[in-house]
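Holo prediction. Input below; ligand is thiamine diphosphate.
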Amino acid sequence: MANPYSKAFLTGLYRQLWTIRAFETRCIQLYRQGLIRGYLHPYLGQEAIAVGVCAALGPQDYLTSTHRGHGHCIARGADLRRMTAEITGKQAGYCQGRGGSMHIADMSQGNLGANGIVGGGTAIGVGAALSARMQGKDSVCAVFTSDGGVMNGTFGESLNLAAAWDLPVLFVIENNQYAVSLPVREATREPELYKRAAGYGVEGRRINGNHVLEVYETAAEYVRRCRAGEGPFVIEALTYRHAGHHVNDPGTYMPEDQKEHYRKMDPCLLGRQFLIELGGASCEEVAAIEADVQQAMDDAVEFARQSPETTIEDFLEQIGGDQ
Amino acid sequence: MANPYSKAFLTGLYRQLWTIRAFETRCIQLYRQGLIRGYLHPYLGQEAIAVGVCAALGPQDYLTSTHRGHGHCIARGADLRRMTAEITGKQAGYCQGRGGSMHIADMSQGNLGANGIVGGGTAIGVGAALSARMQGKDSVCAVFTSDGGVMNGTFGESLNLAAAWDLPVLFVIENNQYAVSLPVREATREPELYKRAAGYGVEGRRINGNHVLEVYETAAEYVRRCRAGEGPFVIEALTYRHAGHHVNDPGTYMPEDQKEHYRKMDPCLLGRQFLIELGGASCEEVAAIEADVQQAMDDAVEFARQSPETTIEDFLEQIGGDQ
Amino acid sequence: MSATPPHDLRARHSSHRGRVQYRTALNEALAEEMRRDPKVFVLGEGIGERGGSYKVTQGLRAEFGAGRVIDTPLAEASFTGVGIGAALTGMRPVVEILFIDFTMLVMDQIVNQAAKVRFMTGNQARVPLVLRTQGGAGNGLAAQHSQSLEALFYHIPGLKVVMPSTPADAKGLLKASIRDDSPVIFIEHKLLYLTEGPVPAVEDYMIPLGKGDIKRTGRDVTLIAWSNMVPRSLAAADKLAAEGIEAEVVDPRTLVPLDEELILASVRKTEHVVIVQEAVRRGGVASDLASIIQAKAFDYLDGPIEIVAGLNTPIPFNLALESACVPQEADIIRAVRRVLGRNACL
Amino acid sequence: MSATPPHDLRARHSSHRGRVQYRTALNEALAEEMRRDPKVFVLGEGIGERGGSYKVTQGLRAEFGAGRVIDTPLAEASFTGVGIGAALTGMRPVVEILFIDFTMLVMDQIVNQAAKVRFMTGNQARVPLVLRTQGGAGNGLAAQHSQSLEALFYHIPGLKVVMPSTPADAKGLLKASIRDDSPVIFIEHKLLYLTEGPVPAVEDYMIPLGKGDIKRTGRDVTLIAWSNMVPRSLAAADKLAAEGIEAEVVDPRTLVPLDEELILASVRKTEHVVIVQEAVRRGGVASDLASIIQAKAFDYLDGPIEIVAGLNTPIPFNLALESACVPQEADIIRAVRRVLGRNACL
Ligand SMILES: Cc1ncc(C[n+]2csc(CCOP(=O)(O)OP(=O)(O)O)c2C)c(N)n1
Ligand SMILES: Cc1ncc(C[n+]2csc(CCOP(=O)(O)OP(=O)(O)O)c2C)c(N)n1
Ligand SMILES: [Mg+2]
Ligand SMILES: [Mg+2]
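Structure of the complex:
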């Protein structure tokens, strides 16, 4: 493999992979401690998709996210403090504690938000792309969706609109092979989900979603072609969750051998390997990154813990008469 | 062309083609006279699709229809009297005058009804097929839809469900190349609509929708294969309306040369030609069929005219407290 | 007489250009806003060359081009979502859904996305989207093209709901809706498009959302009505005047936000209330208005509030049955007589 | 004390098998109906092997097989449509939509198809479909997983709306819903699944749709509540009893059809009404009940009807804010004191 990647670039990728890993791992702990409530859908095992795609985006670009949205938020450069505050329901959070994990958004970076409705953000992303073009901007919108999300009719509708209007949309299907417990092969007769694109006149491709460089390269090509007016495109990134659907799902329906298979190509493991083998980083350097991330994470948790509770009085005043 | 068709069969097809033609032509007159109100979407120009598909169905089969549904109703064997009564809002109509043109249904023949919501019947048809299988019936459901109907997300959703569950559904896309005034090539980047099927693991085919025998043959093959458990299938029947979207739409956006092109392969003209050339019918025999149909139509109109108005008292009693 | 606030008086007092159709007033509102603000655009089915099923968008494509007057395929849920995405990123889309019945296809996008994004993101974003649609019975279009469904939107926090009854209100409210930062459900009525009325010929004629209007003053009974029930109530009021009954017709114009004070002031004056609603009786907006009035003006009422509403049934195709299902002039007159204790006249 | 009609008394008087969970009662209802009638089947997300998000369908796949306990992909609109098609052709499907919030995706199928087919076809067909779903706040699930949306279905003619508050009601009403020939929207509450109560151990325990229940008798004030507001109102009533206030708690159980007579009889007795609703205040079912009561029992009321309801806001994620948005025991108590003129206690 020729190596067109700089050490700095590979370091950046790995730092993000590891940040997501650390963030989710810590969130699960916080959940078990009762500091996070509601639903928590960890992104563990899928880190390379958010990181690879977001590395291919520029500052002017948009993304729409899913119910499993922490990874997209982090990969798009969100502040861990405000994320942690949000997920623990604090006023200092991105959404003032009103949104939580399933609604985390960072509009300042074009992250239009996670979504509690599977498929809910798909059409919204197409709208962002249309809007950008109308405003003369060079933006692309990455629409993250899932093997479940493509089953919702708005996937076909939105893909069709984006194609009919030649919009710069990159649909990213994170095929982790399950919608909760339903295997994708039971959800559809054609489990190669990218194949749906052709029927709408759209180019698509299935890639290894655990391989951050493969994700990055594919996304970079499609983003470039989107900017050249050739969009939309579809990426189906094959991947696998580390564990169950959410923090309380034991995932007993996931066969051990499959878990094992994907653990061997864990996105963080691969990312570390790229950094060392292609970037020439030393084990110490890797450890330093991880320590750095850990510290940022500790700091974020501390920030969230100390951050004041949102008050009911403020809330009532804010919602006022009519919301 | 080898001729596997009997004169009786071809006579049956032609009688139905001509019945739809006569029915729609008369309805337009009644509309102009103020005897029909509301929306009226004539099936003129598309007759071969309903006739060809329904000829391939057996008595145990189902169909779901569209807002342009008179043709399906007639081809499935409905009573012209009750149809005319319905469309003129009389109590003796199929739906007691409650439904009208857009909701005409004949449940006794497995016609689950026209639909005022474009795409509204698609999933319902899949349900009929599932239901039949659960009840151990050998039924197929023909889901009629349109170039506009496939743009609605339920088309992809329903196709996917039917395929995932191997259901005996025959999706029939009547591609008349417009949704009201929107040409299909502006509605989608891939105007060969049957191509969407492949992405769901489903076989589909585009055919000449004005050619009743081509429609019949394709439908017969797919219905047979549906009964053998190979369903679902998709037929895209290319066709063209004789005139505008509804009786008040002048259809000025339809280019003259295209209208002319399709007029030359008018489904009734072709049907008559098949009857004469393949069935060996004489011009007198054809004229007799047409006269017969005309008489049935006159009789139906007379029946509807003389049929008593539905009374408000009856209606109020019927809806009672809660509908 | 009008309850329009001071800053609109200029408009009221200016010379009118004769009478304008409701659909023309809407068309003017769209055209003016599109001229004023390049971020305003429209999308929907058949709104381009064709000018819309009710001709509200006629001429817009010619003036503003296909880039800002976008014909969509039949994919309501997604093109509404496209509107939301555009609104979140700096545009001001006006999405048209041909019939309010079809808004049932976009409920997720409206209820779970548009109405909630601002709240869920802790005020990071606004959704300045107008969803124009059209409802009501009266043309023999049967059960799937005749509903009055404002109550469904009225119940969802985060949405505004506007239902103009006159050409002037249509224009002034549509312009205000387009400039509003919240998602607005703007509901027209199919029987009003061809009605005519004066429209102030002033620049930027606007009516603030949340301001109702007294369409007729009267001392004996308050008739609360909106959309097509306003002209019908006015016609009933004219007939009642001949019997010596002076009805005040209050048109809230915007159901959310609601001009409660205007309604309550009228109730306190007349002490008798009839609410006229085209939508079916059960669970309609009229019930909510009644619940507010009885809570806030209980001591002024000397009898129950009457609701004249649609029957609890889908709308039938047959024209005679259809009109039996929605309030007619005679139903309003009878209800007024009833609340005034003139049962003898029934 | 119960308003249950005579043919159910047998059930009431029979020996109870201790206490049963709400979710277990639902599970029994499904299993019994599936055993009784091969036409009954269930479909939805994760209802097979997984047994449903709230374990209501646990064990059904094992007993009835994958053919009658169907796991669906995430395509709510279409699998609901599949249910309608199956219902039209002889089956009795029970469709599960995981959260009532997601029913926004199936509104077209429910409102424009299921509710209207029978009417539009002039009675040619019935749609014996039950749509089971689950709503309410209380678990920190935020704005898209916490709504109370019964008002939207309540307004649509052709639908029945059932909202059980106890395990016994859950069982009896679900069985009756499955046997009903109309589409029934059956709304459970996420906070009730683990609650326990007696369930009559009789064969085919059923509660007819349209029969409300007096959950507690009292002479001073009528508390009308449904779903999770019933236990909350009962708790409030216990506290009020300590102050010498005897509240009657009326649970309509089915909102459509509504047991108006039961409600009015209680109102005529107590002459004071508080309606407790978890859904947002504006345009909720409580408003409609208030409008009916003031119309039909005006002379019995000596003060306004109070509505204790959710705030007009999407539900926030933060738990403290969430509970501030929906009625709590203290809110109910305060409202009762208010209607009884005990303002001093506020
Ligand atoms: C419209 C809708 N239906 C159902 C759900 C409940 N739900 C949440 S996540 C999920 C499974 C999603 O699977 P997939 O889309 O593949 O995403 P993944 O969880 O695998 O990332 C379901 C059924 C929902 N949130 N929205
Ligand atoms: C969901 C929905 N959207 C819009 C309409 C209004 N409408 C009725 S027919 C029609 C065009 C349909 O075109 P197509 O589906 O191709 O069918 P055709 O009329 O050509 O038979 C439209 C937009 C509708 N009835 N339902
Ligand atoms: Mg998945
Ligand atoms: Mg068409």
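Residues 1-15 of chain C have pLDDT under 50 and may be disordered. That is the main takeaway for now.
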